[in-house]
Amino acid sequence: MKWKKGKAKGNKSSFWKRIRFKYKLSFINESTLEEVWAFRLSQLSVFIALALFAFSLVAFTAFIIIMTPIRNYLPGYLDVEVRKSIMDNALRADSLERMIQIQDLYLRNVTGIISGNIPLDSIREIESLARSDADYNIPRSKEEQEYVKSFEQEEKYNLTVLNTNPAPIEGLFFYKPVNGIISSHYQSDIHHFGVDIAASPKESVLATLAGTVIYAGYDPNHGNVIQIQHKNGFVSVYKHNEILLKEPGEQVIAGEAIALVGNTGSLSTGPHLHFELWYNGKPVNPEDFIVF
User: Helix axis angle, 2-20 relative to 43-67, nearest 10°?
Assistant: First the structure.
């Protein structure tokens, strides 16, 4: 038993001695037999040198693959920028498809109204479309004429008739459509029927009152436009939006996001919202109803 242990120790020590034993490699001048250059090495040093060389080669190859476009040719690898570009293009395609559907629905409605297939209802488009102001001239009875005459006499000296704002605002709370600063005020004499509110790009545009979206589309001058019909005779208009979040026919509540602030349309000179308020087909000053 002792002999076996001694033999095992001898084999182990001889192994380490063998791999650490140094060999001398010399370069000799053939003519003079002079030693020109020599160095010593062992099996262990050769193994370590080869391992370091292999590690360096792998690291250098990985660096080239990561830092150069070669990585795009690896199976299963796709550059983050390429994926982002694909997602952006997909979103643009979806937006264009949605806008085409809205424009198609709008054109079909206009064609139906012009041809007479769709009756003209109480909803009126503003500025861009012709208005039809129906004059019904229904004859009054004698009793009605007497009642109107007496009512006019009673209200003749009532101070409430001096109110220059014909729109009913009692019990109404108008939400501010966007957070910003007014850069241009309401001026009906130059056909500027609204206020321009300078705001941050892609800021949420809110519905000032609850109502129904009657138009959502693109106009070359005013960009992406959305109009909302409210139950009390008001129509609110939001122009130069970046993205429209609602479609015609959708119900919205007061304060709900309906679009994002943008800089679309040829009449826009920067990110802002052009906001208009109409009552019974006539423009009114939004600053008379909303504190901006």
Answer: 60
Backbone angles phi, psi at 285, to 5 degrees: -75, 115
Q: How many CB atoms lie within 10 A of CB 207?
A: 23
For residue 252, list its beta bridge partners. Answer: 211
Both tokens assigned to 256 = 């709900």
Strand partners, 207: none
Please say whether the dihedral angle defined by the alpha carbons of residues 57, 60, 65 and 70, taken in this order, is positive or negative: negative
Nearest Cα neighbor of 205 from 230, 153, 242 is 242
Q: Tell me, what DSSP letter sits at residue 192?
A: B
What's the pTM value of the predicted model, to 2 decimals?
Answer: 0.46
CB atoms closer than 10 angstroms to residue 237: 21
Residues 6+ apart with CB under 8 A from 174: 208, 209, 289, 290
Q: How far apart are CA 155 and CA 148, in angstroms?
A: 10
Residue pLDDT tens, the chain, 292 long: 444 555 555 666 777 777 777 777 777 877 777 877 776 777 778 888 889 999 999 998 888 877 777 666 666 555 556 667 777 788 888 778 888 888 888 888 777 777 766 554 444 444 433 344 444 455 667 777 777 777 666 655 554 444 455 566 666 889 999 999 999 999 989 989 999 999 999 899 999 999 999 999 999 999 999 999 998 889 999 999 999 999 999 999 999 999 999 999 999 989 999 999 999 889 999 999 998 8
In the numeric block, the tokens 């479609």 are attached to: 247
Q: Report the alpha-carbon angle 198-203-208, nearest 5.
A: 80
What's the rounded Cα separation, in Å, for the pair 78 and 277? 50
Whether the Cβ atoms of residue 239 and residue 218 lie closer than 8 Å to each other? no
Tell me the two tokens of residue 39: 């160095």
Burial of 75 (0-12, 13-18, 19+ CB in 10 A): exposed
